[in-house]
Please model this.
Amino acid sequence: MNSPRLTRRSRSPGTERPPPMAPASPSPRSLGSPIVYPRKRVAHPMADRRDIDRLQLVRLSQAGYRALRERCPEEAEKQFEELLRLDPTNSYGLVGMAQVALARGERREAIAWFERCLACHPDKSQALEGAARIYEELDDHPKAIELLRRLADVRPGDVVVLTHLGDAYRKAEDNDRSRAAYERALGIEPGNGYAITGLAHLDFNCGRYQEAIQLWRRVLEGTPSDVRALTALGNCYRRMREFSQALDIYERAREAEPRNFYALFGIADSLRGLGVSDRALAAWEAVLEIDPGNRIILTRVGDACLKVGDLVRAESRYHEALRIGFDLYAVMGLARVAGKRADYGRAIELLGELSEREPRNGKVAIALADSLLLAGDRDRAVRTLRAFLERTGPDRQVAERVAQIEG
Model:
């Protein structure tokens, strides 16, 4: 039997098209709105917990730093401890605990927290900077420099970091690297006052007073009444023994801040350099009013009293200074007072004891020899100076004094 003929419109048995369905109601798509199929979210079983923990960590950190700003270190410590209980390596918590220690004045403990943070987060800038500042305060300049160099790598081109690094090198007396750091900062920001100030201090320390003067004048162009810059500028002229110029600058500083210790000190010392004894004494007394327990100032006042012939006041000031602590110049001042009174035995006694304490001080040796000369013991004076030269080696001033006595 022949099989049925298949045409395009015919179908195999069992594959006939189903009868048409009844027309459906209009669909949302036919009305122009997109069809949105809700999808069931399958979350990680710990996702919500992690979100809650993260939010809790943020809140604890914020609460801790808020307590620090409000000067409540106990509350801050409580918040940071809870933060670290949940996340032991959290950098905000570790730095926060260091800040708590600093608020209590516990610098070594603060360093320990900063170091713990850096062990987990080597590039944490707050920890690098905080630890570096403490090491500087402790005069551990190599460690401070190490941390600041790491900080400069983390924050390249940061002028604040560069000037801080320059300061650290300067305090470590690494002048070349200090200058390089300051100049690099000024190359980025030519008018940066901190870098200019640091470079001025460096030039002063190196005896480059003219260069320091130019830098301090740059500072004063922007702030003509900056007392710190004025006194530093005056110090440059005073070191150059240009006392008149120094005095004018110190007077400007005093006009801006009448009771500034450094301005008054500079005025008094400049007047001493100019040989104006009466005015110098009044100026030293003014400094002493600001800092009555200053041993160095008491000695300077004694020297000024001696210059104007007031031996009683001079002796009293020297004794006041020595009651505070040992002062070489106070002892030498008492010896001069004894010499003025022709009590050469007392002067020789004082200077002999001082020479035993300061065996390599040429000024003491010369003063002792001069007292022996005044007492009429020329041979002993020469022996004293020659013994000093044998003990210490060449000394131009002592050698010249020997030549004068023997000549």
Notes: DSSP finds 21 helices and no strands in the chain. The first helix runs from residue 47 to 69. The mean pLDDT is 89. The two ends are 159 Å apart (CA to CA).
